Amino acid sequence: MKLLLNVLKRIHKPAVYSSQPRCRSSSARSGLLPLRDEALIVGSNPELVQRLGPQVEVRTGFITEEEEGAFMQELELGLKKKRYEFDHWDGAIHGYRETERVMWGERCEEVLSRVRSGAFPEGSPLLGPVHILDLDKTGYIKPHIDSVKFCGSTIAGLSLLSDSIMRLMKEDDAEEWLDLLLPRFSLYILRDQARYNFTHQILKDEESVFNGQRVPRLRRISVICRNLPS
Ligand code: OGA
Ligand code: MN
Q1: Which Gene3D superfamilies match (predicted)?
Q2: What is the CA 199 to chain-centroid distance, rounded?
Q3: Which residue among 16, 71, 110, 123 is least packed, with the fewest CB closer than 10 Å?
Q4: Collapsed DSSP state (helix, strand, coil) of residue 226
Q5: CATH for 58-227?
Q6: d(Cα 188, Cα 198) in Å, to the nearest integer?
Q7: What is the pLDDT of residues 106-139, one digit of tens each?
Q8: Where do the structural domains in the chain lie, given as residue ranges?
């Protein structure tokens, strides 16, 4: 158990960026993605949204409130035994506690197999344990790229308890960015370039504004599935 947690800790590479993207006038925020859930993805420019769009998905209402409840029932007791960690100034995550789990009850397993079959290429071997990240209301995730040593091409995450904003920024060009609105109950999927060449972060409550609209960030739990590097 301890070992697995250590591996998860090493999933996070140090943040690549500390600065926020510049050039965020409303005209620059015109990159709506037309053919998908367009309200959920905006970017620095339409070309980027078009290009990266196929590698980024947000599926709203992927789970029901009852299914969220099933996850909470399985997870809350174990999480409550841990304390939120705030003191790792150099870490990728601030104000969080985490765990991972291999065996799930029937309701959760049902949801997870929906995630697996919907998000990952067929036959792609998955990281055994599912990663659970509990962000305090004041918690946030700094820009990082998941370790290519431990994780493969695809990252899929369920959002429980709160809406949030995930920001992707091109590793070598902070002016290329995409904001994803991740509503409570949704599933997001990052693939390929979006996963390898863009950092991702979850904005803190004070900065949680999507396309000009404030999105309050409460305590948020994510349930994340990953595949193995090939
Ligand atoms: C991570 C991460 C995103 C999320 O743990 O590496 O980026 O949705 N999590 O919690
Ligand atoms: Mn990550």
Answers
A1: Alpha-ketoglutarate-dependent dioxygenase AlkB-like
A2: 11
A3: 123
A4: strand
A5: 2.60.120.590
A6: 15
A7: 999 999 999 999 999 989 999 999 999 999 999 9
A8: 58-227
Residue 23 structure tokens? 């050039």
**Nearest Cα residue to atom 5 of ligand 1:** 133
Check residue 230 and give its pLDDT: 87
Is the Cβ–Cβ distance between 79 and 132 less than 8 Å?
A: yes
Residues 30-72: pLDDT tens digits?
Answer: 455 444 455 899 999 999 999 999 999 999 999 999 999 999 9
Taking each helix axis from N to C end, the angle separating 65-80 and 106-119, rounded to the nearest 10 degrees, works out to: 110
Ligand 1, CB cutoff 6 Å, lining residues: 11-12, 133, 141, 146, 157, 200, 202, 222, 224
Dihedral sign from CA coordinates of 86, 89, 90, 94: positive
Question: What does the CA dihedral 114, 116, 122, 123 come to, rounded to 10 degrees?
Answer: -130
The answer to whether 154 and 21 are in contact (CB under 8 A) is no
Structure tokens at 178: 């995409």
